[in-house]
Design a protein that fits this description.
The protein is mostly helical. The chain contains 17 helices and no strands. Helix 6 runs antiparallel to helix 7, helix 8 crosses helix 17 and helix 14 packs antiparallel against helix 15. It is globular and about 65 Å long.
Length: about 350
């Protein structure tokens, strides 16, 4: 068993470190995680027909959601472009910021965090206010999207993996499991981020040199992204199953307050990957809530923390230092507030 633990911790270390050290791995992260997942399942002797079936079928829902929403968004791009500036001028930039941030947060659980992030980039492209203000609005919107998408298993990979890991005994997690246990935290968070968007927005529309998208997407981009999402979820399922001995032996014994703060590491690592390594039926419900909330909040602090950050920062050319200057203080404040609310 000692050799098993040693092998799994070595794999975990590679998963957490190598994407930062080797550019090629970062570029091909889905394939790398798939290989690491297969290695973890092999080391822990978890291979079975049920796992293979789960890995093939579990990604289907979110993958189809990404594909359909991707083509739907492509059809609506022109409409978004024609209405952003007009609506923001009509209702005021503050009201527009609230509706954009809160609206995308709530919608992300249905249209997926990926599509919500693409819509965000499109809206910001045509908003045309001062750059520093737009960066703050993007960061707040990504916090909101990351929160809202966790309400359903089709919203983002983190929620997909959490439900997949908890659908058996003792939790029998269904489609609304996360909404039931985290809904009050998530819904209030989305509204708070929307209100903060109103606060950081100018009182009057002041046209400036804002953020711009790097390029528009075609059908090929949509299919490639869909395939990567499928492989990514499959990889996370393998990682989660492979790391089961670590979850049972070590993580399940960490108090919920400890899991909450430990998961600040999600600021620099994709929170879905950490969810695959941590979440399991051996955890108590308070541990699960604390672990997931820690991942969701700290995942917004830096660009690598979650998918909305990565997509939005990449398309709008936001620098890591620009993101950290606002995202880290905001994340620390929200982490502190939710720590006292967690129960």
């Amino acid at each position: 068993m000692i050799l098993c633990y040693a092998g799994l911790f070595a794999i975990l270390a590679m998963v957490l470190v190598l994407p930062f050290l080797i550019k090629k791995i970062e570029q091909e992260l889905e394939l790398f995680l798939f290989l690491m997942g297969c290695a973890a399942v092999t080391v822990s002797a978890q291979w079975n027909a049920h796992l293979i079936k789960e890995a093939l079928l579990e990604p289907v829902k979110i993958t189809l959601a990404v594909l359909v929403a991707g083509f739907l968004f492509q059809r609506l791009q022109a409409s978004i472009a024609g209405h952003v500036e007009r609506i923001s001028r009509t209702i005021g930039i503050k009201a527009f910021a609230f509706l954009m941030i809160a609206g995308l947060g709530f919608l992300s659980s249905v249209i997926t965090a990926i599509i919500a992030s693409l819509i965000l980039a499109e809206v910001i492209h045509y908003l045309k206010v001062e750059r520093k203000t737009e960066i703050k609005l993007v960061i707040l919107a990504c916090f909101s999207i990351g929160f809202g998408a966790a309400l359903t298993p089709i919203g983002e990979p983190l929620s997909t993996i959490a439900i997949a890991k908890l659908k058996g005994q003792p939790y029998e997690a269904d489609f609304f499991f996360l909404a039931k246990h985290l809904g009050q935290y998530i819904l209030s968070g989305v509204l708070i981020f929307g209100l903060l968007g109103m606060i950081v927005s100018p009182a009057h529309y002041q046209k400036g040199t804002g953020l711009r998208e790097d390029k528009r997407e075609g059908a090929k981009d949509i299919f490639i992204r869909t395939g990567k999402v499928y492989l990514f979820i499959m990889a996370l399922i393998f990682l989660g199953s492979g790391f089961k001995p670590i979850i049972d032996a070590f993580i399940s014994k960490v108090p919920y307050r400890g899991l909450y703060w430990i998961n600040m590491i999600s600021a620099v690592l994709d929170n879905a990957t950490l969810a695959a390594a941590e979440i399991g039926p051996a955890l108590g419900i308070l541990q699960i809530k604390a672990a997931l909330l820690g991942l969701l909040i700290s995942g917004g602090m830096l660009i690598p923390g979650n998918i909305p950050n990565i997509i939005s920062a990449g398309k709008l050319k936001i620098k890591s230092s620009e993101w950290a200057a606002f995202g880290v203080p905001l994340g620390l404040i929200v982490m502190t507030i939710y720590f006292f609310l967690l129960k």
